[in-house]
Design a protein that fits this description.
Strand 7, helix 10 and strand 8 form a beta-alpha-beta unit. Helix 1 crosses helix 2, helix 6 packs across helix 8 and helix 6 runs antiparallel to helix 11. The protein has a domain of 134 residues: 3-Layer(aba) Sandwich (Rossmann fold), CATH 3.40.50. 38% of the residues are buried. The chain is α/β, with parallel strands linked by helices. The chain binds the ligand C=CC1=C(C)c2cc3[nH]c(cc4nc(cc5[nH]c(cc1n2)c(C)c5CCC(=O)O)C(CCC(=O)O)=C4C)c(C)c3C=C and fe (ii) ion (2 copies). The site of one fe (ii) ion has 2 residues, from loops. Pathway: Porphyrin-containing compound metabolism; protoheme biosynthesis; protoheme from protoporphyrin-IX: step 1/1. It is found in: Cytoplasm. This is Ferrochelatase. Keywords: Cytoplasm, Heme biosynthesis, Iron, Lyase, Metal-binding, Porphyrin biosynthesis.
Length: 360
């Protein structure tokens, strides 16, 4: 048995293509405990996500977490599941399709696909499929604006691991982050302004980012800094003073200290201080998902209102906003520099490939 993935016999007669691969986290196949178990097992067995010694973690994961969490998480997923499926998958699929359409309209001849770090469609399957269709240059864009080892880092690992198994590797470029990309910041700012126009303006804007364990910052992970920078740039774009907004971190998992302040602490203390109306936004998520729709839009709201707050409004993620898709296209185009992009280039390469025929 070959140690490499299967590939068709080499032939000159193909059109070399450039591919863009969007990567997201992944989501269970259904909002049930049965579907949650393998998803959580794969996710939480990732050494980039949980760094505690393997033997101890194996016992905790298999002995406790996988017996308790699937049922609880399934209930949460059930509360946000749509007719089309899990919001994370639905938005990622639409983003890939819209990006492909926009790049095509801009004259770029590129394939655009998406894959999930955990679950399906898997990174390996999608890269193999792209390779079989002639992809020989690959640009990878994780859908996490801020780099964390536990999100973008592990997404890149999955790509590198796939390439390690390939005989005929594509050229590879990766986008590490886009936390300060002007188009991304402008789209966030526009979404806040539109929300204010429609619903009125709250007394405070809470910018909630997914958390990570505090020790990752001490060990050199840039995630905290990148979240703070996104927060500052968004505040500047909205002309907010430091009193008008707060950056906080959500989704704490386990007993260890995570990045602070915790979003739920911020929400209850704002309510107790008498800040009546707040707007919340999750700039670290390119699309709405469990962590935004259930934790922030639902749980956060309940906490704020039961702690004495008056009005709580959640601002949706960028999702399929045209300004966000345009920002993605700009980011991708800048990172495709020098690779085939136009139909003319592609035709030239095809002619050259034909001219060299099967002589060697
Ligand atoms: C935005 C980037 C993300 C980072 C960084 C991140 C780190 C991280 N997450 C966990 C544990 C869980 N996260 C879960 C869901 C989840 N996480 C992200 C993004 C980041 N996580 C997203 C987009 C989602 C939603 C997925 C969806 O299907 O909608 C979950 C699963 C849900 C649950 O059971 O609560 C866990 C678990 C850790 C431990 C971690 C960093 C160390
Ligand atoms: Fe997470
Ligand atoms: Fe910092």
């Amino acid at each position: 048995m070959s140690r490499y993935l299967h590939e068709a016999e080499f032939s000159h007669a193909y059109t070399p293509k450039t591919g863009v691969l969007l990567l997201n986290l992944g989501t269970p196949e259904a909002p049930t405990a049965k579907a949650l178990r393998p998803y959580l097992k794969q996710f939480l067995s990732d050494r980039r996500v949980v760094e505690i010694p393997r033997a101890i973690w194996w016992l905790i994961l298999n002995g406790i977490i996988l017996n308790v969490r699937p049922k609880k998480s399934a209930e949460k997923y059930a509360s946000i599941w749509s007719k089309e499926g899990s919001p994370l998958l639905v938005h990622t699929r639409k983003q890939a399709s819209l990006l492909k359409g926009l790049l095509g309209m801009q004259g770029q001849q590129v394939m655009v696909e998406f894959a999930m770090r955990y679950g399906n469609p898997s990174v390996e399957d999608v890269i193999q499929k792209m390779r079989a269709a002639g992809m020989e240059r690959l640009l990878v864009l994780p859908l996490y604006p801020q780099y964390a080892a536990s999100s973008s880092g592990t997404a890149h690992d999955a790509v590198f691991r796939t390439l390690l198994k390939m005989r005929n590797m594509p050229e590879l470029r990766t986008i590490r982050h886009y936390h300060d990309h002007p188009g991304y910041i402008a789209a966030l700012a526009a979404s806040v302004r539109e929300h204010w126009q429609k619903n009125g303006r709250g007394d405070k804007l809470v910018m909630s980012f997914h958390g990570v364990p505090r020790y990752t910052l001490d060990k050199g992970d840039p995630y905290h800094c990148e979240c703070m920078k996104t927060g500052r740039l968004l505040a500047e774009a909205l002309e907010l003073s430091s009193d008008d907004y707060v950056v906080s971190f959500q989704s704490r998992f386990g007993k260890a200290e995570w990045l602070k302040p915790y979003t739920f602490d911020v929400l209850s203390s704002l309510a107790k201080q008498g800040v009546g109306r707040i707007d919340t936004i999750c700039p670290g998520f390119a699309g709405d998902c469990l962590e935004t729709l259930e934790e922030i839009a639902m749980e956060g709201k309940e906490l704020f209102l039961t702690s004495g707050g008056k009005e709580y409004r959640y601002i949706p993620c960028l999702n399929e906003r045209p300004d966000w898709i345009a920002a993605m296209a700009e980011l991708v185009t800048a990172n495709l520099g020098g690779w085939i992009t136009t139909p003319d280039d592609a035709n030239m390469r095809q002619l050259r490939a034909r001219a060299c025929g099967a002589k060697h």
